[in-house]
Design brief:
Length: 332
Protein backbone atom coordinates (compact mmCIF):
# COMPACT_ATOMS: atom_id res chain seq x y z
CA UNK A 1 0.00 0.00 0.00
CA UNK A 2 1.30 3.45 -0.88
CA UNK A 3 1.70 5.98 1.90
CA UNK A 4 0.48 9.56 1.62
CA UNK A 5 4.02 10.46 0.52
CA UNK A 6 3.89 8.08 -2.42
CA UNK A 7 6.45 5.60 -1.08
CA UNK A 8 5.65 1.93 -0.77
CA UNK A 9 5.11 0.92 2.86
CA UNK A 10 6.86 -2.31 3.72
CA UNK A 11 8.56 -3.91 6.70
CA UNK A 12 12.29 -3.46 7.00
CA UNK A 13 15.09 -4.65 9.22
CA UNK A 14 16.40 -1.24 10.27
CA UNK A 15 13.27 -0.25 12.15
CA UNK A 16 14.86 -2.54 14.72
CA UNK A 17 18.29 -1.45 15.89
CA UNK A 18 21.07 -3.54 14.35
CA UNK A 19 24.38 -3.15 16.22
CA UNK A 20 26.24 -4.70 13.28
CA UNK A 21 25.44 -1.59 11.25
CA UNK A 22 26.81 0.65 14.01
CA UNK A 23 29.97 -1.44 14.13
CA UNK A 24 30.28 -1.18 10.35
CA UNK A 25 30.29 2.61 10.67
CA UNK A 26 33.21 2.38 13.08
CA UNK A 27 35.11 0.14 10.65
CA UNK A 28 34.49 2.69 7.86
CA UNK A 29 35.78 5.56 10.02
CA UNK A 30 38.79 3.52 11.11
CA UNK A 31 39.69 2.68 7.52
CA UNK A 32 39.73 6.40 6.67
CA UNK A 33 41.95 7.05 9.70
CA UNK A 34 44.36 4.37 8.46
CA UNK A 35 44.30 5.98 5.01
CA UNK A 36 45.38 9.29 6.52
CA UNK A 37 48.36 7.53 8.08
CA UNK A 38 49.47 7.05 4.48
CA UNK A 39 48.47 10.47 3.07
CA UNK A 40 50.27 12.24 5.92
CA UNK A 41 53.20 9.84 5.48
CA UNK A 42 53.06 8.94 9.18
CA UNK A 43 53.04 5.22 8.41
CA UNK A 44 53.52 5.12 4.62
CA UNK A 45 52.46 1.52 4.03
CA UNK A 46 50.63 0.47 0.88
CA UNK A 47 48.23 -1.57 3.03
CA UNK A 48 46.59 1.67 4.19
CA UNK A 49 46.02 3.14 0.73
CA UNK A 50 42.59 1.54 0.10
CA UNK A 51 41.31 3.13 3.32
CA UNK A 52 39.63 6.01 1.48
CA UNK A 53 36.98 3.51 0.39
CA UNK A 54 35.52 3.92 3.87
CA UNK A 55 34.07 7.21 2.58
CA UNK A 56 31.70 5.70 -0.02
CA UNK A 57 30.77 3.02 2.52
CA UNK A 58 29.73 5.85 4.85
CA UNK A 59 27.64 7.39 2.07
CA UNK A 60 25.89 4.11 1.30
CA UNK A 61 25.15 3.53 4.98
CA UNK A 62 23.80 7.06 5.29
CA UNK A 63 21.16 6.90 2.58
CA UNK A 64 20.26 3.30 3.43
CA UNK A 65 19.63 4.15 7.09
CA UNK A 66 17.80 7.40 6.41
CA UNK A 67 15.42 5.86 3.87
CA UNK A 68 14.57 3.20 6.41
CA UNK A 69 14.05 5.77 9.14
CA UNK A 70 11.73 7.73 6.89
CA UNK A 71 9.78 4.51 6.45
CA UNK A 72 9.41 4.33 10.22
CA UNK A 73 8.60 8.03 10.62
CA UNK A 74 8.00 10.06 7.43
CA UNK A 75 7.58 13.35 9.30
CA UNK A 76 9.89 15.89 7.65
CA UNK A 77 10.08 18.17 10.72
CA UNK A 78 11.21 15.17 12.78
CA UNK A 79 13.69 14.13 10.09
CA UNK A 80 15.36 17.54 9.74
CA UNK A 81 15.28 18.26 13.48
CA UNK A 82 17.07 14.97 14.11
CA UNK A 83 19.67 15.71 11.42
CA UNK A 84 20.36 19.19 12.82
CA UNK A 85 20.65 18.04 16.43
CA UNK A 86 22.79 15.06 15.48
CA UNK A 87 25.15 16.76 13.01
CA UNK A 88 25.41 20.52 13.43
CA UNK A 89 26.77 20.98 16.97
CA UNK A 90 29.76 18.70 16.38
CA UNK A 91 30.30 19.88 12.82
CA UNK A 92 30.46 23.59 13.70
CA UNK A 93 32.59 22.92 16.78
CA UNK A 94 35.07 20.87 14.74
CA UNK A 95 35.19 23.44 11.91
CA UNK A 96 36.01 26.23 14.36
CA UNK A 97 38.65 24.21 16.23
CA UNK A 98 40.31 22.96 13.04
CA UNK A 99 40.29 26.47 11.55
CA UNK A 100 41.94 27.97 14.64
CA UNK A 101 44.56 25.21 14.84
CA UNK A 102 45.32 25.45 11.11
CA UNK A 103 45.61 29.23 11.22
CA UNK A 104 47.36 29.87 14.54
CA UNK A 105 49.17 26.60 15.35
CA UNK A 106 50.07 25.14 11.96
CA UNK A 107 50.31 28.62 10.38
CA UNK A 108 48.36 27.65 7.28
CA UNK A 109 47.10 30.28 4.85
CA UNK A 110 43.41 30.10 5.72
CA UNK A 111 40.96 33.00 5.90
CA UNK A 112 37.72 33.83 7.63
CA UNK A 113 36.11 33.70 4.20
CA UNK A 114 37.12 30.03 4.07
CA UNK A 115 35.51 29.58 7.48
CA UNK A 116 32.29 31.18 6.23
CA UNK A 117 32.19 28.80 3.27
CA UNK A 118 32.46 25.88 5.69
CA UNK A 119 29.61 27.29 7.76
CA UNK A 120 27.49 27.47 4.59
CA UNK A 121 28.41 23.87 3.60
CA UNK A 122 29.75 24.99 0.21
CA UNK A 123 33.53 25.03 0.63
CA UNK A 124 33.76 21.53 -0.86
CA UNK A 125 32.80 23.05 -4.24
CA UNK A 126 33.97 26.68 -4.01
CA UNK A 127 37.23 26.20 -2.08
CA UNK A 128 37.87 22.45 -1.67
CA UNK A 129 41.43 22.79 -0.34
CA UNK A 130 40.99 25.88 1.85
CA UNK A 131 41.69 23.93 5.04
CA UNK A 132 41.41 20.38 6.31
CA UNK A 133 39.98 18.49 3.37
CA UNK A 134 37.95 16.05 5.46
CA UNK A 135 34.97 18.42 5.78
CA UNK A 136 34.01 18.06 2.12
CA UNK A 137 32.42 14.66 2.82
CA UNK A 138 30.26 16.08 5.59
CA UNK A 139 29.12 18.98 3.42
CA UNK A 140 28.14 16.65 0.59
CA UNK A 141 26.16 14.67 3.17
CA UNK A 142 24.31 17.83 4.24
CA UNK A 143 23.10 18.43 0.69
CA UNK A 144 22.09 14.80 0.34
CA UNK A 145 20.06 15.08 3.54
CA UNK A 146 17.88 17.54 1.62
CA UNK A 147 17.53 15.20 -1.36
CA UNK A 148 16.83 11.97 0.52
CA UNK A 149 13.22 12.81 1.57
CA UNK A 150 12.38 13.51 -2.10
CA UNK A 151 13.85 10.15 -3.08
CA UNK A 152 11.85 8.50 -0.31
CA UNK A 153 8.58 9.86 -1.70
CA UNK A 154 9.11 7.98 -4.97
CA UNK A 155 7.73 4.52 -5.57
CA UNK A 156 10.25 1.70 -5.72
CA UNK A 157 10.48 1.70 -9.51
CA UNK A 158 11.43 5.35 -9.57
CA UNK A 159 13.82 4.86 -6.66
CA UNK A 160 15.56 2.21 -8.74
CA UNK A 161 15.71 4.55 -11.75
CA UNK A 162 17.28 7.28 -9.59
CA UNK A 163 19.79 4.76 -8.24
CA UNK A 164 20.80 3.60 -11.71
CA UNK A 165 21.18 7.21 -12.88
CA UNK A 166 23.45 8.06 -9.92
CA UNK A 167 25.53 4.93 -10.50
CA UNK A 168 25.89 5.70 -14.22
CA UNK A 169 26.92 9.32 -13.55
CA UNK A 170 29.57 8.19 -11.09
CA UNK A 171 30.94 5.46 -13.36
CA UNK A 172 31.19 7.74 -16.43
CA UNK A 173 32.64 10.62 -14.41
CA UNK A 174 35.27 8.43 -12.73
CA UNK A 175 36.33 7.02 -16.09
CA UNK A 176 36.70 10.50 -17.57
CA UNK A 177 38.71 12.08 -14.76
CA UNK A 178 41.32 9.31 -14.36
CA UNK A 179 42.70 10.19 -17.80
CA UNK A 180 43.30 13.84 -16.86
CA UNK A 181 46.59 15.31 -15.56
CA UNK A 182 46.96 14.74 -11.82
CA UNK A 183 46.24 18.33 -10.73
CA UNK A 184 42.94 18.34 -12.61
CA UNK A 185 42.07 14.81 -11.51
CA UNK A 186 42.83 15.62 -7.86
CA UNK A 187 40.41 18.57 -7.94
CA UNK A 188 37.61 16.77 -9.80
CA UNK A 189 37.96 13.67 -7.61
CA UNK A 190 36.53 15.62 -4.65
CA UNK A 191 33.51 16.86 -6.62
CA UNK A 192 30.06 15.32 -6.02
CA UNK A 193 29.66 13.38 -9.31
CA UNK A 194 32.44 10.98 -8.37
CA UNK A 195 30.60 9.92 -5.20
CA UNK A 196 26.99 9.78 -6.37
CA UNK A 197 27.30 6.09 -7.22
CA UNK A 198 27.67 5.33 -3.51
CA UNK A 199 24.27 6.86 -2.86
CA UNK A 200 22.86 4.93 -5.82
CA UNK A 201 24.05 1.63 -4.38
CA UNK A 202 22.73 2.66 -0.98
CA UNK A 203 19.29 2.97 -2.57
CA UNK A 204 19.73 -0.46 -4.18
CA UNK A 205 20.60 -1.92 -0.78
CA UNK A 206 17.42 -0.36 0.64
CA UNK A 207 15.33 -1.94 -2.13
CA UNK A 208 16.96 -5.38 -1.77
CA UNK A 209 16.99 -5.67 2.01
CA UNK A 210 14.18 -8.23 2.23
CA UNK A 211 16.02 -10.72 0.03
CA UNK A 212 18.23 -13.49 1.31
CA UNK A 213 21.93 -12.66 1.05
CA UNK A 214 25.04 -14.82 0.65
CA UNK A 215 28.56 -14.23 1.96
CA UNK A 216 30.21 -14.02 -1.48
CA UNK A 217 30.79 -10.28 -1.07
CA UNK A 218 33.36 -10.92 1.65
CA UNK A 219 35.50 -12.91 -0.79
CA UNK A 220 35.11 -10.33 -3.55
CA UNK A 221 36.00 -7.46 -1.21
CA UNK A 222 39.09 -9.35 -0.08
CA UNK A 223 40.11 -9.89 -3.72
CA UNK A 224 39.56 -6.20 -4.51
CA UNK A 225 41.67 -5.23 -1.51
CA UNK A 226 44.44 -7.55 -2.68
CA UNK A 227 44.25 -6.12 -6.20
CA UNK A 228 44.44 -2.59 -4.80
CA UNK A 229 47.57 -3.43 -2.78
CA UNK A 230 49.17 -5.04 -5.83
CA UNK A 231 48.47 -1.97 -7.97
CA UNK A 232 49.69 0.37 -5.20
CA UNK A 233 52.94 -1.54 -4.85
CA UNK A 234 53.81 -2.38 -8.44
CA UNK A 235 51.96 0.10 -10.69
CA UNK A 236 52.16 3.32 -8.69
CA UNK A 237 54.82 4.79 -10.99
CA UNK A 238 52.37 4.89 -13.90
CA UNK A 239 49.87 7.51 -12.80
CA UNK A 240 47.18 6.65 -15.34
CA UNK A 241 47.26 2.90 -14.67
CA UNK A 242 47.18 3.43 -10.91
CA UNK A 243 44.23 5.83 -10.99
CA UNK A 244 42.41 3.76 -13.63
CA UNK A 245 42.55 0.61 -11.53
CA UNK A 246 41.94 2.19 -8.13
CA UNK A 247 39.60 5.14 -8.76
CA UNK A 248 37.65 3.57 -11.61
CA UNK A 249 37.70 -0.24 -11.68
CA UNK A 250 38.14 -1.11 -8.00
CA UNK A 251 36.00 1.77 -6.79
CA UNK A 252 33.04 0.93 -9.03
CA UNK A 253 33.31 -2.78 -8.23
CA UNK A 254 33.53 -2.12 -4.50
CA UNK A 255 30.32 -0.08 -4.38
CA UNK A 256 27.90 -2.99 -5.03
CA UNK A 257 29.92 -5.14 -2.62
CA UNK A 258 29.42 -2.47 0.04
CA UNK A 259 25.68 -2.65 -0.59
CA UNK A 260 25.79 -6.39 0.07
CA UNK A 261 27.98 -5.77 3.11
CA UNK A 262 25.32 -3.45 4.54
CA UNK A 263 22.66 -6.11 3.99
CA UNK A 264 24.82 -8.81 5.59
CA UNK A 265 27.28 -7.10 7.96
CA UNK A 266 29.96 -8.94 9.92
CA UNK A 267 29.02 -10.26 13.34
CA UNK A 268 29.50 -7.97 16.31
CA UNK A 269 32.94 -8.28 17.86
CA UNK A 270 32.01 -6.66 21.16
CA UNK A 271 29.90 -3.96 22.74
CA UNK A 272 32.98 -1.73 22.51
CA UNK A 273 33.03 -1.79 18.70
CA UNK A 274 29.29 -1.08 18.63
CA UNK A 275 29.77 1.83 21.05
CA UNK A 276 32.58 3.21 18.87
CA UNK A 277 30.25 2.90 15.90
CA UNK A 278 27.70 5.02 17.72
CA UNK A 279 30.31 7.80 18.12
CA UNK A 280 31.89 7.20 14.70
CA UNK A 281 30.78 10.61 13.43
CA UNK A 282 32.84 12.31 16.13
CA UNK A 283 35.71 9.88 15.56
CA UNK A 284 35.68 10.75 11.85
CA UNK A 285 35.52 14.48 12.59
CA UNK A 286 38.40 14.70 15.06
CA UNK A 287 40.93 12.05 14.09
CA UNK A 288 42.61 13.77 11.13
CA UNK A 289 43.31 16.88 13.21
CA UNK A 290 44.98 14.82 15.94
CA UNK A 291 46.94 12.82 13.36
CA UNK A 292 48.28 16.08 11.94
CA UNK A 293 49.31 17.18 15.43
CA UNK A 294 50.46 13.95 17.08
CA UNK A 295 50.99 11.32 14.38
CA UNK A 296 49.68 7.75 14.67
CA UNK A 297 48.58 8.16 18.29
CA UNK A 298 46.12 10.74 16.95
CA UNK A 299 43.76 7.83 16.22
CA UNK A 300 43.50 7.19 19.97
CA UNK A 301 43.02 10.89 20.64
CA UNK A 302 40.31 10.96 17.96
CA UNK A 303 38.42 8.19 19.76
CA UNK A 304 38.74 10.01 23.09
CA UNK A 305 37.58 13.28 21.51
CA UNK A 306 34.57 11.52 19.99
CA UNK A 307 33.62 10.07 23.37
CA UNK A 308 34.07 13.48 25.00
CA UNK A 309 32.03 15.42 22.41
CA UNK A 310 29.49 13.12 20.72
CA UNK A 311 28.62 10.74 23.53
CA UNK A 312 27.30 13.45 25.91
CA UNK A 313 24.97 14.70 23.17
CA UNK A 314 23.49 11.24 22.60
CA UNK A 315 24.19 9.46 25.90
CA UNK A 316 20.67 8.25 26.60
CA UNK A 317 20.06 7.14 23.02
CA UNK A 318 23.35 5.23 22.78
CA UNK A 319 22.99 3.49 26.15
CA UNK A 320 19.38 2.50 25.41
CA UNK A 321 20.31 1.13 22.00
CA UNK A 322 23.07 -1.08 23.34
CA UNK A 323 21.16 -2.16 26.47
CA UNK A 324 17.93 -3.04 24.69
CA UNK A 325 19.41 -4.58 21.55
CA UNK A 326 17.87 -7.97 20.81
CA UNK A 327 21.19 -8.98 19.28
CA UNK A 328 22.94 -8.84 22.65
CA UNK A 329 20.00 -10.46 24.41
CA UNK A 330 20.22 -13.45 22.07
CA UNK A 331 23.98 -13.76 22.48
CA UNK A 332 23.90 -13.49 26.29
Amino acid sequence: MASRYGAIKRPNMINRYDPRIAQLRFFAALSVAFYHLWTLQIVPLAFFRPGWLGVPLFFELSIFLLLNRLDANPSLPHYFKRRIIRIWPLYFLAVIVVFLVNKYVLNMDVTYYDLALHFAFVSFVLAPFSFQYLFWTLQLEEWMYVAIPFIHRLDNKRKFQVAVSLIAISAIYSLLIVSLPYDEFHLLYFMPPFWLGAYGWGIIAYLLQQRKQSNAHYIILALLYGLYIFVAMYMRHNEFIYEFFTRFIIYNLALPMFALLILNPPSVLSRATVFLGEVSYGFYLWTLLFQELFGAVGIVYGILAAIATEFPLREREIINRIKTSAYFAQSA
